[in-house]
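Methods: example folding runs. The two proteins below were folded one after another, and each record is reproduced exactly as written to the output file, sequence line first and structure-token line second.
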Amino acid sequence: MINIFKLTNFLAKGDKGMFDVTVDSQRAFFETLKKPIDNFDRTKKQYLCQMFFVPLWKRILFEIVSLIVLPFYWLIALIRSLFVSKRLLYKVDCISEYKSMEEVLPSEFRSKYQYSFQEWYSGKMFTFNDWIFCLKCLFRTFSPYLTLKVSVKISLYSYMIHRYKPNAIQVCAEYSFTSSVLTEYCNSFGIKHINVMHGEKLYYIRDTFFHFDECYIWHEHYKQLFMELGAEESQFVIAVPPSLTIDCEKNYSKESFADYKYYLGEETEEEIHSIVNSMQKLVNNGETIKYRPHPRYTNMSVLKKYVSLEDIEDTKKVPIVESIASSNFVIGSFTTVLLQAYFSKKNVVLDDVTFKKRYVDLKSRHYFLADKECSLLSNFLK
């Protein structure tokens, strides 16, 4: 099976990222696109928004290569499918993506669907009707590259649909321009196509125009953001997943407690030095401080250069839920930990001292916590 994630990462090399393009530039391009008329049009417009970040030479190359590859993919997929059984293997209520991320599924979704992971992308099939559907996609979008990606996804969905007859398919894929046309495909079989939010969202036209039958989001803020980005209005269900809510009383630990905890990411040495200087002002006022490094990204040798070992929280010994529960104030810049703290009723402090420019930029991009007017570190240091 094609590893879609590795392929996507490879194809993204050289593209501009979200923070490389201003909100004004993104909005100006977005506003040149008319309101979509159906799911095929939604996919095409989301694709155009994503290509806004891709160099022109690369876009042309993608289309030329895909134009050559697409008919061969269709032919091989159709021939191979002649040897794949279309008989029902067993019935599944809901096929769910990401077994390793089950904690992102909110209780509202869990109580509504009997979901299963093992059937996800378990095989490939491409029927004559699938080919007709993809041909229609090509005629509607005039993009061989878009149609090739849709065709690959269709072959994976087709196998799940024919072999397990699900009532619903759940994904975490609002960022994929194939999402709306896959909703159209699922609906042609009477199947719901469901999306579950799994990470922080900002104003980013990569996430425009998508349409699912149900889209579970964390807060009304994200509904307004996605609607501003042209997503279909009726799909949204507000539901906070277990991964974002912590029972602070249950997970509190006296040994892990500190008045303030700073949650680090992939900071430079200069940024770590600045953070420690800011925290020292709180220490001088008699407050206790702990720094929690990111398990993968924080440069520990640099951190230990400025912070004593006893003030660094051991991520292997102290679970994140215990860490957040055992503090009065949670400090950081742009990390999901801050969201966990917010939804767990903890005091969140945004670092607008070391990351002043980033804070202003995040606010312009509709960052949830900036819009919630959380406390700012600069006010604590006055």
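Second run, written to the same file directly after the first:
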Amino acid sequence: MAVSDLGIVEADFTDNALADLGQTVSRTPITVVLDNESGAPTFTTGTPANITAIFTKRNQNYDWAKEGLFDGGDAFMQFDKDQAMNKDDRITFNGEKFRVDNIVTRQAGGNGLFKSCNLFLIE
């Protein structure tokens, strides 16, 4: 089944939801390097750049797992499927800084439409 059979085109997200609800957020790429001996992480900050995303702040979200209760994030963000985004990148919105986690490409008919991620408040 093709995406067109579903009545969905790849531009549906960018031309509609992102165009109507998108807000400017700042993305700062973060590179993580682990020490060979101790395994301690070293974080290197890249150059911030503004991107357009749908940013949704939410109440504490907890998920039950086999190991116990896990924090599901403080915010949620949806953005263009071609936008570069990596785990541990920083998002700044309205003066608050968030850490990116759980990046997922949302698909329809096997084609990527947009990406989403959970965000954890760090400052």
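Comment on the second run: The chain has a mean pLDDT of 86.
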